[in-house]
Design brief:
- The model has no long low-confidence stretch (mean pLDDT about 85).
- The protein is mostly helical.
- The chain is globular and about 35 Å long.
- The chain is built from three helices and no strands.
- The chain has one domain (about 10-40).
């Protein structure tokens, strides 16, 4: 069974800023950062 990952605030801010800038879609960002798309939303 895998453990949940805890991401630091800097990582979360980086993903959020890229999401708001519209550089990539939500699905593309989720794949790139190996996170579930729901986390990116």
């Amino acid at each position: 069974m895998s453990k949940r990952r805890n991401h630091d605030p800097a990582f979360k801010a980086g993903v959020a800023s890229k999401t708001l800038k519209g550089e990539r879609t939500m699905s593309e960002l989720a794949t790139a950062y190996e996170a579930h798309p729901t986390i990116v939303y």
